[in-house]
Predict the 3D structure of the following.
Amino acid sequence: MIEFERFKLKNGLTVLFHKDVTTPMVVINTLYDVGARDESEDKTGFAHLFEHLMFGGSINIPDFDAPLQNAGGESNAFTSNDITNYYDVLPAHNIETGLWLESDRMLSLAFTEKSLEVQRNVVIEEFKQRYLNQPYGDVWLELRPLAYEKHPYKWATIGKEISHIENATMEDVKAFFHKHYNPSNAILCIAGNFELEEIKRLVEKWYGDIPAGIKPARILDKEPKQKEFREQIIERSVPSDAFYYAFKMPERRDPAYYIVDILSDALGREKSSRLYVSIKKEKQIASSISAYITGSLDDGLLIISGKLNPGKTFEELDEALWEVIDEMKKTTISKEELDRLLIKIRTEKEFQEEGLLNRAMNLCTFELLGDANGINEEREIYQSITPKHIHHYANEILKQTNCSLLKVKAINNAE
Amino acid sequence: MLNRSQQPELQAIHKIDFVKPQQFDITSTVKLYFMKEVANDTARFDLYFDAGTVKGEKGIPSFVNSLLLSGTQDKSSTLIHEQIDALGGFMESGISFESAVTSMFCLRENVLPLMHILIDAIQNVAFFEREIDELVQDKKQGYLMNLEKVSFLAQRGFQQRLFHTSENYSKVANLDYYETVSSSKLKSFYRENYLEGLFKVVVVGNLEQDAIDEIIDTIGKWSKPTTREFETNIQNLPGNTHIEKEGAVQTAIRLGKILFNKTHEDYNDFVVLNTVLGDYFGSRLMSNIREDKGYTYGIGSMLSEYNKFGYFMIATEVASAFKDATLKEIKFEIEKLQTELISEDELALVKNYLLGQLLKSADGPYSMMDLYSSAQIHGFDFEFYNKCIEDLHKITPERIKELAIKYLNWDEMTIVTAG
């Protein structure tokens, strides 16, 4: 059970406080309800570029990092298609430095040309390092637009193309900040050994006078129901052929989300999973194979991906893979297999909650979903899932007409 | 009115409350370290083997490490994994130059049954041909994929030149590794370094003493006294090397030299110098090469430690057009540390940052155990970190400059680029 308190400031900022008497540190986690899905199609990669700019100095503080490091702390952030999340971890007695820094960059940024110019370059190098200069690094840049036709999940957080980042202007940056970075669009979680009253006083002190702003309405293009099988082959200079089967699945708030999560585990999470045993161990068609879900807030994807063994073909794989899927659709899984999947999930969750930072981040995510207490309800939801549920959604999700397949064909083998 | 331009007052750290793990003798040389202070139901145990990559040739140590759960005469590898999964266990296996470790993450109620499954699997590996073939094939694929990465190529070239005088440390994988594997070689390495090579056990989790006794009892039957020996006096080969990689959009840089570990008298102060130069977000290298020039997504320096030595390294991936410019800036930053005194402000910031990081490293039972382990390897206790705190409060700008001159001589560096 993760205990927490919730209060709201007049400007709309939602605050969660999680008390942990054992830690000498404090975590200050800020979730902004903005991600790559909120970008316009001709200016992609913006939410993420913006995350970099948040470290380039704020209205009253020229340098974000140095004062935090002086307080013995460190900070980082990540951007997904759904959210942008910032965290600071510092010795508890220096909590005010963290609040001072975070509240000032919520108030306003410095918006210097130098910072924009440098971070554009840094992000372009990140684009190259993670997506272009790695074998299979660009797979998601290809798979997203194949699986999504309308919804902004069709581009990756890094952006559709480097030119969108190169062309970002200071006006774009300012407009993005004013629209999305205000108290009513943020959830703050503080975790550490404090009293609630002290946290209330400190948060009011540092955040209370930030103008409320308006929580931006989110009207996204709804992804139409997929009705046909899609397939694309790309040729790359990689050592082996690779495959990515992407099936549409329900959004994060849908109870079926959890069922499909377990379905993906049954298919390909561990070395005892069905695809791994059949396609890697028994038939030796693939050198690696796994199944997982993207975990996105809107309609997501269940992915089956892996690499072919030398001499094996996509056709052999396809036949063997659908055999495993058809078996999953025909029969219900045993109680024993389901228990095996559930205890892994329980163990994993217990480990996640061991860390203070994870607790703070997860509380914010669940609050965004509607209620931070969701963190405490997840286990029961998983435990209530039956073989019948899984059988139903196996038939619902694992269909050709709900599938997009990306094949990466290896050319110029290094051998 | 709130003054937002003024940083709130800071408090410095003078003391950290370390929690020492309990220590038990399994044999005269094999010890078990036990950290009981865990607030929830998680647990972990680690088995350390004297089976690092320097102990064998042609990838054999790494193959054996990956085959530990490949099946026994009684159980297939799939059955072993099913049993581990049924108890919610997450197994991780890792290998470095000087040791191999197998870790199990699980709920505390499952520690004992998982330990019995794991020990049975590791003690009775059958080395089935089919499993060996599959693994070698997979590793070969992984190797071919790595060859496509400039970071791998640079790291590999760096390793060859950094450990220039040592055959064991400088050897790197090549295609030949995957063609010449014989089960007899695997088996003999396994007998020598796993069946007789267990040298340390770590347990973290809120377990009763009975459980610890059972672990000691079970492992006590297995482990033999071992004496571990390591090479000393390894020297790096200074100078520049470039590895050409067609079509690469970035160039990877690795630069460094052989240095020392925690046992050296200059270690604590060198850690401060290393941090100033490249081991935190506000470091000189990050400020200059990422935040000012935008040549890279990241650049860092580190001190890597082994039983008898350590090495210093700077690593980055940069836009290919900026390879030479980056090397020039790295040299510039090092020379600046050798010629100009660091300001009191910057030094104070790094001290405070390091103290905060140390406090964080001691937050929670898992971090605390790992922190203890990294001192224990060198024969120290938490006293080591108390000395660290003391030294941190004492270090001067003159001392930083002195160490930069003493240890960061550009002409002694091994420099490898790939791109």
Summary: Chain B has two domains: 22-220, 239-418.
